[in-house]
Design brief:
The protein has 3 helices and 3 strands; from the N terminus they run H-E-E-H-E-H. By secondary structure, the protein is of the alpha+beta class. It has a 3-stranded mixed β-sheet, covered by helices on one side. The radius of gyration is 15 Å and the shape is globular.
Length: 109
């Protein structure tokens, strides 16, 4: 694989994170990335992305719409061919997964 065809996964990852930081949990005024709802982002050399994420609870009112919003917004990054969002509750989300910034925002620090 030549240098030109190697994708810069770090740069792409940063773009994806930037997009994820524009998506908010409707009940909490903090973006889903800082909340710790994004468990993993995989990017392969075919510009296909898989995002493993969770929700604050299985009964989350946005369980149907939030993954679709994540998929659509990340798909807006030009170079990506495909985006798949997988929801998992293993491990279940806890407040410990939140960033310091999120905890500060919510007055938990």
């Amino acid at each position: 694989m030549s240098e030109e065809t190697t994708i810069d996964t770090q740069e792409l990852g940063e773009k994806i994170v930037k997009v994820l930081k524009t998506i908010y949990d409707p009940e909490i005024p903090v973006d889903i990335y800082e909340l710790g709802l994004i468990y993993d982002v995989f990017v392969n050399e075919d510009y296909e992305v898989k995002i493993l994420m969770t929700l604050t609870s299985p009964n989350c009112p946005v369980a149907e719409t939030l993954p679709v919003e994540v998929e659509e917004k990340v798909k807006s990054i030009d170079m990506l061919k495909d985006v798949e969002v997988e929801i998992t509750f293993d491990p279940p989300w806890t407040q410990e997964l939140m960033s310091e910034e999120a905890k500060l925002e919510l007055g938990m620090l």
